[in-house]
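input
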Amino acid sequence: MTITLPPHSHTVADIKALIRRESRRVTSYDVAIVAGVSQSAVSRCFKPGASVSKATFARVMQAATDLDYTPNAAARSLNTRRSKLVALVVSHMVTLHYPELLAELSRQFALFGMRILLFSQPRGSDLGATLAEVWQHQVDGAVVAAHLSGTQAGEFERRQVPVVLFNRHLGDGGVSAIVCDQAGAARTLASRLAAAGHRRFALIDGPARSAIAQERMRGVADRLAELGLAPPFRVSGEHDYASGARGLREIIGRLGQVPDAIICSNDAMAIGCLDTARHEFKIDVPGQLSVTGFDGSGPAGRLSYNLTTLRQPVPQMAQATVEMLMDLIGAGGAAPQRRTFSANVIEGATARLGPAC
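output
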């Protein structure tokens, strides 16, 4: 757009009047006119680390304030080839059960001047459709907390978009990842329950499509086998409250008795199981039955539940995710990395535990 200024019309009022007549937004050229500097000087004032004198910076900032000017991020990205945007791709389960993750990632990325674009994968949908939306935006990188296939991972590489997987990984290690040792945490929990005298175990599993749930339940089963105990009785769930309640009913109905301990693949199911045990079956928890979960979610810590569970270090994992992705963005073509974190046992009031080894 060509801006035609009347002679000597350098005042804020004159520039504002011109902008109104032309029905347009304030530009860096308008700021330059009012501040009495070049347009490139205005650009330098809004570029972190650029060289500019204190006097020039003060004049430009005052003119920008007077004109209510905000730099155009999209236009700036064309010059820097950086959008300062990160795609966060999450499954519906992450959205429901890890709200603190979204807040923590947003806070951590903001420290680097980055902003998040959230893409939520609906239940039962294909991630490919969600990624098709991601490709429409000029993101500098991506964090994916959803099941990513090798083909989809290859598409990130082809498009030269750095990506970090959160709490999951590809088997071949071809994509950078931040993970929690799910199987190791599950083994620890099984060991401590067995050390307290539990012998008959049942599992309320998560969805077959959830790699995290499968790792957790495999860790429990493997550890019980090592201890010479019978395989756990296993029923499937959907990582929600209702399937925890339904799972307990199925376990008691099919076994014909109450097991010693029920390990649930997440806290939501454990709470459903716990409420049903106490109020529907009048079972003494933890005297007659121990109930445990995973995740250390907010509701699990409430006084009415005080759930025995495993807490993942979400803030530390989020910080590591941000730092890893920023390194990949800066390095360009760096080799994939993986960092593994450990979960902590939260000794609540719903399970009898033996001593930690």
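quick obs: The two ends are 72 Å apart (CA to CA).
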